[in-house]
Structures are given as C-alpha cells and as structure tokens.
Amino acid sequence: MGQSIGREAAAKDGPADLIDIALEKVVEAGLELPGCRPAQEALANAAAMTAEVRRTLEDLDEEASG
Q1: For the chain, what are the domain ranges?
Q2: pLDDT, tens digit, for every residue of 2-56?
Q3: Which pLDDT score is estimated for 3?
Q4: How would you label 19-54 residue by residue, b for 16+ Cβ within 10 Å and e otherwise?
C-alpha cells in the first residue's frame, strides 16, 4: 500500500489531493477511522445554533404577521 500511495502522491501536489489518496487507500483496505470528538462537538453546536436561529426567525415572522 505504501508504494502505491507514493506513486499516486508523486503525480499530485496539493494537500487536498494527498488527503484524498490517503482516504481512498483507507477505504480500499477496509479500515475505519475513529470518530473525531472535536468535529462531532462542532457539528452538534452548529446544529443547536441553526435550530435557535430558526426558532428566532419563526418568532419574528409570527410577530410581524400578528
């Protein structure tokens, strides 16, 4: 696996390309990546903030309509 990654990486030069190659090899090998707690927490916070913004907008809409 290391040699094929090296060959593919030599043909690519951007960090995103190299990450894509590495992730592709992980998937091909049937490996799993562990969960990333900071990313999960950030997503949960974003979801909570989105819900709060939605509620606020709905309240404002009701006030404007009523």
Answers
A1: 1-33, 34-66
A2: 566 566 666 666 778 788 888 888 888 888 777 767 877 888 888 899 999 999 9
A3: 63
A4: eebeeeeeeeeeeeeeeeeeeeeeeeeeeeeeeeee
Q: Are 18 and 9 in contact (CB under 8 A)?
A: yes
Q: How many residues does the chain have?
A: 66
Q: Tokens standing for 51?
A: 């819900």
Q: Is the CA virtual torsion 13, 18, 24, 26 positive or negative?
A: positive
| pLDDT value of residue 14 | 76
Cβ neighbours of 5 (radius 10 Å):
14
Give CA–CA dist 66/64, Å, rounded.
6
